Amino acid sequence: MNMSNQAAHDKKLGKLHDGLDVSTFDRDHLWHPYSTMVERVPMLEVASAQGVRLQLKDGAELIDAMSSWWCAIHGYNHPHLNQALNHQIDQMSHVMFGGLTHRPAVKLGQQLLDVAPNELETVFFADSGSVSIEVAIKMAIQYWASQGRGSKNRLLTVRSGYHGDTTGAMSVCDPLTGMHHLFTNILPQHMFVEAPRCRFGEPCEAEDIHDFEAILREHAHEIAAVILEPIVQGAGGMRMYAAGYLSHVHELCKQHNVLLIFDEIATGFGRTGKYFACEHADVSPDIMCVGKALTGGYMTMAATMTTRQVADVLSTQGPGVFMHGPTFMANPLACAAASASLELLETNTWKTQIPQIEEILQRELNEAQSIRGVADVRVLGAIGVIELEAPVEMQAAQRISTDHGVWLRPFGKLIYTMPPYVITPEELRQVTKAMVSIANDQSKLV
C-alpha cells in the first residue's frame, strides 16, 4: 500500500489501531440487527459479563433480562461451560464433517435424542436457527419429491409467526405484519391461516381450528408440511396459544398425509416450563428445529431432528442423499458447549427455577393490567410480556430500563423479558419494575 493510500486508509478508520475508539468505529462502520447506518443511536459497550449481569465499559452493570436474545439460559461465564470449551480447544476447534466424525458430535447427538420426542431418531447439525429452518423446509420438500410427488412443495402455517431471516425462513414468517414484506416478490408463496385465537390454558374449540382444517383438506395434495412454533409465537408477537390447538394440528397432519415441523428454537430447553413446548400437548412432530439456548449462548449452533421414516426416504429415494452441507456443520467447539449446556439441564435445576420465575412474573407484571394503553399481560414459564396498544418508543424505553439497571429490548408493541434461568428473585423483581415503569411512561404518550 503506497503512502497516499495508507493515509486515506488511516483516515477512514480513524487510526483505530493505535487507540481503539469502539463507539466511533461501531457507529461509522458496523451494522447491528435491524438497524440503520445513518443517525445512529450510540450502542452500549459491554466489557465483560458474569452471571446475569453485563458489565459496561463505563463501569455500570445491567441485569440482562433478554438472555442475549433468549439463549444465555445459564447466565454468563459459567464455569462448567468454560471448562468444556477450554478442554475442547486443546483437542481441536474445528474439523470438517464431510467424511469425518468426532466424539463431541456423537455425544451431543445422543444427548439430543435422549430428550427429544421418541419418534425423532436422526440429527442434522446446522449453523444457526434460521439455517435449521431452511434444512427442515428442504427435508420436507425433498421427502415428497423423492417419492415422485413434487407437487407437494408448499407449506402451511399461521400468521404472527417468525422463523428467521434467511430466504426460506422468511417465506413462512407472517407476510403482512412480519419484518420481511419488502422481499415478498422473491419469496416462495406459501399458505397462511389466522393465528390461533384460543389462549394458553383455555380449550381449543372446533371453530378455532376450522380455517386451518379447511385449507389443509382442500390443499393437502400440494402441501409438503405444516410449520409452527409450538405454544408460543416468539418474535412475531409473543402470543401464547392453547395446547389443544397443537393437538388438533398434529391429528390433521396425520389424516391428510402432511409432514409436521415444529420450530422449538425459542421455546426449547425449558423456557415454557417443559423441556420442549410441544410437550404441553404431548405430541411429536416429523421434523423439529432447535437452536438459541442449545449451547447456553456460548456458540452459534442449531439442529434439525427428524424421524427414521423421513431420513430413510431422503437416503434411499431420489438422489439418495440429503442436499445440504454447511461448512461448519457439527463444529466441535459448538458441540462441546452444547453438551455442557445439556449436562446442566440434566441436573433438573431448571424445573425449580422456571416455576419460580413464572410465579414472580405473574404477580409483579399483573400491576401493568390497570395502566392506560396496556392491551394485555401474559406469562408462561420464563416468558413475561406486557403488550401495549401502540408501538413502544424504543429510546425512551431503553433509557428507563438502563436507569433501573436492567437491559431490555422491546419490539413492536411488546415490553417483554426472557431472563436467564439463574436469575434471583430480587434481580427478577428489578426487571419487572423496569417493565412496569416503561409501561407507565408509554401511557403518557397515549
Can you put this structure into words, describing what you see?
This protein is of the alpha/beta class. It has 2 domains: 33-64 and 349-443, Aspartate Aminotransferase, domain 1; 81-346, Type I PLP-dependent aspartate aminotransferase-like (Major domain) (Aspartate Aminotransferase, domain 2), CATH 3.40.640.10. The protein is built from 14 helices and 16 strands. The strands form 4 sheets. It has a 7-stranded mixed sheet with strand order 4-12-11-10-7-5-6, with helices on both faces. Strands 1-2-3-15 form a 4-stranded mixed sheet. A 3-stranded antiparallel sheet has the order 13-14-16, with helices on one face. The protein is globular, with a radius of gyration of 23 Å.
Number of strands: 16
Number of domains: 2
- How many strands, what sense, and barrel or not for the largest sheet? 7 strands, mixed
The CATH superfamily of the largest domain bears the name Type I PLP-dependent aspartate aminotransferase-like (Major domain)
Number of helices: 14
Instruction: Report the helical percentage.
Output: 25-40%
Radius of gyration: 23 Å
Annotated CATH topology of the largest domain: Aspartate Aminotransferase, domain 2
Shape: globular
- The CATH architecture designation of the largest domain is 3-Layer(aba) Sandwich
What is the topology, as strand order, of the major beta sheet? 4-12-11-10-7-5-6
The low-confidence runs, each spanning 5 or more residues with pLDDT under 50, are: none
Q: What is the highest CATH level, the class of the largest domain?
A: Alpha Beta
**Secondary-structure-derived class:** alpha/beta
Estimate the strand proportion.
15-25%
Straight-line N-to-C gap: 58 Å
| Average pLDDT number | 94
